[in-house]
What we know:
Layout: H1 3-16, E1 56-57, H2 69-76, H3 90-101, E2 108-111, H4 114-126, E3 131-136, H5 141-148, E4 152-157, H6 166-172, E5 177-183, H7 195-205, E6 210-214, H8 230-234, E7 239-244, E8 257-260, H9 263-269, H10 279-289, H11 292-316, E9 320-321, E10 327-331, H12 336-345, E11 348-349, E12 360-364, H13 368-387
Parallel strand pairs: 1-11, 3-4, 3-5, 5-6, 6-7
Antiparallel strand pairs: 2-8, 7-8, 9-10, 10-12
Helix pairs in contact: 2-10, 3-10, 4-5, 11-13
Amino acid sequence: MSRRQWLQRSGAAAAGLALAGAAPSSAAVAAPPASTVRPPFHPRDVQLARDPDTAIRLSSNENPLGPSEAARAAMATSYDEACRYPYRAYPDLINAIAEREGVSPDHVIIGAGSTEVLCMAGAAYGLDGGEVVAADPSYKGLTRYAETMGAYVHRVPLDDTMTHDLDRMDRRTTGAVKLVFVCNPNNPTGTIVPADRLRRFCEAVSHRAVVFVDEAYYELMDDAHRASMVDLVRDGHNVIVARTFSKIYGMAGLRVGYGLARPDIVERLRPYSMGSPNVLGLRAAVASLGDAAFRTMSRQKMAEARTFTYDLLDDLGLDYAPSQASFVFFRTGRPIDAVRAAMAERGVMVGRPFPPFTDWCRVSMSTMDDMQAFATALRDVMRTSTAMGG
Length: 390
C-alpha cells in the first residue's frame, strides 16, 4: 500500500472510529483514563476458546516456527547444566551480543525477556514520582510497571497515521520527565517512525531525559526500513535499546532478552533485575545469534503472512495499518470484545482491546495453515455480523 493510499485509508478510519467514541487524530483523542488502559498483563485469551488445546493462537505475537535447529541442538547439549545456576552462561551471551552490536560487554544487560529490561527501566526512573512519556496505545510493559513504582505517565495519543507523535512527545518532555519510551515498530499498530526522524528525536530529547527504544520487532522489519538506534548507544547518548529472542528467534517461552545502554545506565538498571533466563535459554540465544539463515527464513515467513493478510483485508474492504512487525492491526467496525468472542467460537484467538481503538483487531502472523483458518473464521464473522446488522 502506498503512503497516499494509507493516508486515504486512515481518513476513512478516523471517521469510522466514531463508533468507538473517538478518532485517532492526536488533536482529537485525549489520553484514555487509567482505568481503560490496563488490560491484564498476561493475556487470558485462551479462556475464550472452547478447546484451548486446539485453538489457533494469533493473540500474543508468538513465532510459530519455534527455536531454530541450532538453538534446539544447543539446548540438548546443555541439559547437564540444568542443575546449576545460569550465571556461568551469561558471559557467552553477553560477549556474543556485544560483538554483534559493536559495543563492549559492559554496555549489555540480560533480562528474562526484554519485558524485564523494560521493567528495570520503569523502576529505575519511575520511583518516587519520576515522570514518563509514552505513546498511547503502545506496549505497556514499561509504563504499567513504572506506575506501580509511583511514576506519573504522560500518554501521548498516536497521530492520524497511528504512528508516534514525536513532536508532541518532545513538547511533553519537561524537566520532571525522567524517561521517554518509544516502541518502534509500535505494538499494537505495527507502524514505524522513519529512522532519521527517530534519530533526531532521540538526540534532542536525550539531553533532557533517558530515551528507551523498544526494538522487539526490529529484525522482522523489511530491509528498507530496518534501522536501529544502537549507534546512539555507541556514541554515548542517554539512550537504551531493548531487543528480545521471543519474536524472530521463536523463543518466547524461554524468556531471554537484552538491553543496550551506556555502562553507567546499565549499572543503574541492574539492581532492579528480579529474575534471570534459564541456562537452556541462554545457550539457545547464543546459537540463535549465529544462525543468519534462520533469521532470514523467519522474516520471510512473517512477510508472506502479512501479504496474505493484507490481501484478505483488501478483499473484505477493511482498513488496516501497514505493519513492520509480526502482526497486523485492522478495523473491524464492530466492538473488539464481540469480534474476539466470535473468532474464539470458531477456534481462532485474536488480540485484546487497545483503547481508544475499540473496534480494531490485532492479529498475529503465523503459518499459512493458521492464516487460512483465520481467513475462513474472519469471513464468517464479518458475514454473520453484517447479516445481523452489526
